[in-house]
Amino acid sequence: MEFLSERHIFMENNLNEAAIRSFLKTPNTPQSITVLETVDSTNAYLKSRITETTPTGTTVIANCQTNGRGRLGKSFFSPSDTGIYMSIALKADAVADISLITIAACVAVCAALESVADVRPQIKWVNDIFVNKKKVCGILAEAVTDPKSHIINAVVVGIGINITTQNFPDNISNTAGAVGSGKISRNRIAAEVIDNLLRLCSDITDGRIIDEYRSRLMLIGKKICYTVQGAACRGTVLGINEHGNLIVQLSDGSTDVLKSGEISLGSKNFV
Prior knowledge:
By secondary structure, the chain is an alpha+beta fold. The chain is built from six helices and twelve strands. The longest helix has 17 residues, at 101-117. The N and C termini lie far apart (41 Å).
């Protein structure tokens, strides 16, 4: 009986469109959800298929990625059956301020994990989500531009979440982790992320999105290292502004405002 119970849990957790739609607040939104067993990258797959008529919210989800991508050319470990690897297309004319899309995506994922997995995620600016001091999610937003006008007509938001992933590669084994146990529904989390992101992006200039992001920020009061125009800098994080930029205080009392970039902090500073 125990074997059947575990098998039942596994089968219920297989990613499929019908199960995901059953958890959506509006089952027919988004119009298109494609679930793939394996793909090189959900972002690459979706970007290559976006047209002028692609509706905002179009979603691609994979059970496995062979070439999952992160920021700054990094890879995202994406084994079968244990994670959610998804990309959502947001048409630029449907989002008032596309610079806030990554902020909204972080809030959307955190809210989904809190609701479904009963965990308390924290955000490492700008796009990494941690649970129990381990990175469980990375977000990569990529613009899709018109080849002639070079105007951004859509943004593809890639979201990779380690739900029950174990046995990480050596180069990330000390920093990567999973949300929890095998009893967490991947279909429900995927649905909640979709619902949350589309709701937040429908009114992305609402200041409460920044407030929600700020309340989960793990860096406030921490000393960080970063680079500005090739120069190494160090300072203490004060918070973020209304645009989601990181505010850092230097030793002389002046401040830097970081719009993007990679930051690091020693292990003693992790909360």
